[in-house]
Every structure is written in C-alpha cells, then in structure tokens.
Amino acid sequence: ELKVEQNPLFLSMQEGKNYTIYCNYSTTSDRLYWYRQDPGKSLESLFVLLSNGAVKQEGRLMASLDTKARLSTLHITAAVHDLSATYFCAVDRLTSYDKVIFGPGTSLSVIP
Amino acid sequence: DSGVTQTPKHLITATGQRVTLRCSPRSGDLSVYWYQQSLDQGLQFLIQYYNGEERAKGNILERFSAQQFPDLHSELNLSSLELGDSALYFCASSPIGTSSYEQYFGPGTRLTVT
Question: Which tens digit of pLDDT belongs to each residue from B36-87?
Fold first, then answer.
C-alpha cells in the first residue's frame, strides 16, 4: 500500500530564512505533486515531478525528486509571509488504475 | 480562478439524507477527479472519470457514487449520509486521462451533516 509522509507537520519560521519540507513515500511512484492550500481555500498546484532528479523552481520555492530514495523536497528560500499556507505532497503510480495518495500536509507559518 | 466550478458551495443536511454535488471541469479537460478533505482523514482521492468512463477508484464508500455526463460535467452522489461524511469535497480536472499533468481544483463544496 502506498503511504506518504511529510515532515515537519508544523513549521514556524522567520521571514528571510530558508527551510525544507520533506515528503517520503513507501513504494515506487511514477509522479509526485506539490500543492498549496490557503486556509478555507482550494488547492493550488505548485509542481509536478515526473522523473528521478527532476528539479523545478517557481519564485522562492524549489521542488526536487529522488525516486531511488523515494523522497521529494520542497525548499523555501528567504521566506516571506505570503508563503504561509499548508503544503501537500501527493504521489501516484501508473497501475491499471491511477490513484493519488496525499501526505498529511505541512502547515507553514512565516513570522515577520 | 482555476476554471473549475462546483455547486453548491455549502450544503447542510441531516443524517440519512442524499445529496448531489456538481462539478464543471475547465473547458477542454476530459478528466474529473473527486476528493474528500476532512480533519480526520485528511485529503482522500475518491474517484476519477475520463471522458464519461470511470478511470480509477480510491477510498470511495459504497454509499457514494459518481458519474460524468456527455457534456463532461460530473456529479457526486452521497446517500444515507452520516455525521462522518461532513467534509470539504473538491473536484479537479485535467486535460488527459492519466494524471501526468497538473490538476486544477475547484473551490469545493462544504458538506455539513447534522
């Protein structure tokens, strides 16, 4: 059974600092996603990582994927308050049925 | 605005009742996914449709069913509702059958079962 873990689950950081959120999954996965959710809002797609070694960057966020280690990271550079949100990673596999499994989410609070 | 619409935004109903949630995907997207988000279970994938056909099934209860119509909108039917079904229900759409591409999420329907 595919399981997805994230750590930390809660993160409070100061503006201007760097930090990394980790996403581990238990079995082979074909695709990994990162989403952002603001309180009371829907999910916004941040990154889709399709292959080992994939790295994508958007603004202060950079995501990477190591399929051998079954690990993805979301790195935050010089955090700003607007990045405060919950970040989810999700994985799926190319089985006969696609299934998407979400991690528990990391609640990020950036303090001025 | 993702281009995915969901109605209604809020729904309050009693245990034992049946409700229907509606989703209209982005123009041109053939695939629709349904998700449930609750404090207890987190985000869970329920079911996926592609061009009218069921494509994948996740943790969807037997009391729940869905369909995708020829105009590609989708409905999620929840019956014999229980208190534990209270949650935020999202639909998402993507251009093709597999989830190789990012999914665009609708604003969600908040269901409260009393």
Answer: 999 888 999 999 998 999 988 888 999 999 999 999 999 999 999 999 999 9
Of A31, A88, A102, the CB nearest to B99: A31
Nearest CA in chain B to A92: B99
- Residue position matching structure tokens 């990020």: A108
Question: What does DSSP assign to residue A65?
Answer: E
Give B109's strand partners: B89
- How many angstroms separate the CA atoms of A16 and B24, rounded? 40
Q: How far apart are the first and last CA of chain A?
A: 41
**What is the Cα–Cα distance from B87 to B108, expressed in whole angstroms?**
10
Q: Residues of A at the B interface (Cβ-Cβ below 8 Å)? A: 31, 33, 41-45, 48, 50, 88, 90, 92, 94, 97-102, 104-105
Residue A93: partners with Cβ closer than 8 Å, 6 or more residues away: A2, A27, A28, A29, A30, A99
Kindly report the three-state secondary structure assignment for every residue of B14-31: CCCCCEEEEEECCCCCCE
